[in-house]
Specification:
The protein is an alpha+beta fold and 314 residues long. It has 2 domains: 161 residues, 2-Layer Sandwich (Ribosomal Protein S5, domain 2); 126 residues, GHMP kinase, C-terminal domain (Alpha-Beta Plaits, 2-Layer Sandwich), CATH 3.30.70.890. Helices cover 33% and strands 26% of the residues. Strands 1, 2, 3, 4, 5, 6, 8 and 12 form an 8-stranded mixed β-sheet that branches. It has a 4-stranded antiparallel β-sheet with strand order 9-10-7-11, with helices on both faces. It is globular and about 75 Å long. The relative contact order is 0.19. Bound molecules: 4-diphosphocytidyl-2-C-methyl-D-erythritol 2-phosphate and adenosine-5'-diphosphate (ADP). The site of adenosine-5'-diphosphate has 20 residues, from helix 1 and helix 2. One of its GO terms (molecular function) is 4-(cytidine 5'-diphospho)-2-C-methyl-D-erythritol kinase activity. Pathway: Isoprenoid biosynthesis; isopentenyl diphosphate biosynthesis via DXP pathway; isopentenyl diphosphate from 1-deoxy-D-xylulose 5-phosphate: step 3/6. It is an enzyme of class 2 (transferase). This is 4-diphosphocytidyl-2-C-methyl-D-erythritol kinase.
Length: 314
C-alpha cells in the first residue's frame, strides 16, 4: 500500500520588487505654470536605499489591500491614497485585469523626506503587479503610467543617473563612472513637497528665471569623470532656500557636514533630508557619526549611488 499523500494548497503567486530612493544632484526650478507645476531641469541619482513592494494574488473579488512596515510606517497611509495602491489600480485599469491583490510595502527610504520613497513604492508596485498579472506592459507604457502617478515615479522605475525635464518626468540617462559615497540625515517630521514649491514661489515672487540644460555642464563632466570632488562643488538645489526657510535648523546640519569635510552638502529635493557627499565609505561613516553625536539628524544612513531602478527580486 502506498503511503497517504498529504495535500497542501500551493502558496498564492507573489512578485517582490525593489525600487530606489533618489537625491537630486542638481534641481533647477523655473517659474510656476498655469497647471500649478514648475518646469524643472534636474539631475537625479538613485541611491542604494530601497523600498520593497510584495504583490500577492488575492481571492477573486477581494479587491486591493495594503500593509506597510518599517520605522516610519505609521506616517504612511494604507488606503487608496497610498501611491502603491494607486499604481496597482492604474495598471489594472490600463490592462483590464481585476485588481485582486494584497500589497505589502517595506519602507527603507525616509517618509516625506525629499527622497521619493512614495514614488519608489509606486514604481515597485507597477513592476510587481505587471509581473504578477503577466501583463507584459512595454517599458515605454510603464513609464507613461508612472508619470501619471507622480513626477518622480518614472525616475524610480529607471534608476541610475538621469537628467529630468518637463515636470521632472522626461528622462535622459546620464553617463557616470564609479561609485559615490553619500550620507543622508533625515528628520522625523517630513516636509510637504507642495508647501516647499509654494514657499519657492513666494521667495521668487513667481518670477524665477527660466531653466536650461547648460547650467549643469560642470556637474555632468564630474559624473563622466567619476570625480567626487568636482561633483561635490557642482551640487545645486533651487528648493534649498525654501526648505531652509521652513526648517532653519537644517542650516546647522549642512554646516556640520561641511566642517566634517563633506565634498558637498545639500538639501535633498524638497527636503528635509540633508545629503552629504563623502570622499570614501570611511569618510561617510565619520560624517554620519558626527551628525549623530551632535544630534543634527533624527536618523542617519550611509549609502552609495548610482543604484539600479525598479527590479524584481522574486
Ligand atoms: C521636489 C521633487 C524633486 O525631485 O521631489 P521630492 O524632493 O519632493 O521627492 C519633485 O519635483 C516632486 O515630485 P513628486 O513628489 O513626484 O511630485 P508630484 O506628486 O508630481 O506633485 C506634487 C506637487 O509638487 C508640486 N510640483 C511637482 C513637480 C513639479 N515639477 N512642479 C511642482 O510644482 C506641485 O505642487 C504638485 O502638486
Ligand atoms: N507609499 C507611500 N509612502 C510614503 N508616503 C506616501 C505613500 N503614498 C502616499 N504617501 C504620502 O506622500 C507624502 C510624501 O511622500 P514621500 O514620497 O515619502 O516624500 P517626498 O515626496 O518628499 O519624496 C507622505 O507624507 C504621504 O502622506
Amino acid at each position: 500500500m502506498s503511503p497517504p499523500v498529504r495535500l497542501t494548497a500551493a502558496p498564492p503567486p507573489t512578485a517582490r520588487v525593489r525600487a530606489p530612493g533618489k537625491v537630486n544632484l542638481s534641481l533647477r526650478v523655473g517659474p510656476v505654470q498655469d497647471d500649478g507645476y514648475h518646469p524643472l531641469v534636474s539631475v537625479f541619482q538613485a541611491v542604494a536605499l530601497y523600498e520593497e513592494v510584495t504583490a500577492t494574488q488575492a481571492r477573486p473579488g477581494s479587491g486591493l489591500s495594503l500593509t506597510v512596515d518599517g520605522p516610519q510606517a505609521v506616517l504612511v497611509p494604507t488606503d487608496e491614497t497610498n501611491l502603491a495602491w494607486r499604481a496597482a489600480r492604474l495598471l489594472a485599469e490600463h490592462t483590464g485585469v481585476e485588481a485582486d491583490v494584497a500589497l505589502h510595502v517595506r519602507k527603507g527610504v525616509p517618509v516625506a523626506g525629499g527622497m521619493a520613497g512614495g514614488s519608489a513604492d509606486a514604481a515597485a508596485a507597477l513592476v510587481a503587479c505587471d509581473a504578477l498579472w503577466e501583463t507584459g506592459v512595454p517599458r515605454s507604457d510603464l513609464l507613461d503610467l508612472a508619470a501619471r502617478l507622480g513626477s518622480d515615479v518614472p525616475f524610480c522605475v529607471l534608476g541610475h543617473t538621469a537628467v529630468g525635464t518637463g515636470r521632472g518626468h522626461l528622462l535622459t540617462p546620464a553617463m557616470t563612472r564609479g561609485e559615490f559615497h553619500w550620507v543622508f540625515g533625515a528628520s522625523e517630521r517630513g516636509l510637504s513637497t507642495p508647501a516647499v514649491y509654494a514657499r519657492f514661489d513666494e521667495l521668487t515672487q513667481g518670477g524665477a528665471a527660466p531653466v536650461g540644460l547648460d547650467d549643469d555642464t560642470a556637474l555632468m563632466q564630474a559624473l563622466r569623470a567619476g570625480d567626487p570632488t568636482a561633483l561635490g562643488a557642482a551640487l545645486h538645489n533651487d528648493l534649498q532656500e525654501a526648505a531652509l526657510s521652513l526648517r532653519p535648523e537644517l542650516g546647522r546640519t549642512l554646516d556640520i557636514a561641511r566642517e566634517t569635510g563633506a565634498l558637498g552638502a545639500i538639501v535633498s529635493g524638497s527636503g528635509p533630508t540633508v545629503a552629504a557627499l563623502a570622499r570614501s565609505r570611511q569618510h561617510a561613516l565619520a560624517i554620519a557619526a558626527t551628525w549623530t553625536a551632535e544630534g543634527a539628524a533624527d536618523a542617519v544612513w550611509t549609502t552609495t549611488g548610482p543604484a539600479g531602478g525598479a527590479r524584481q527580486l522574486t
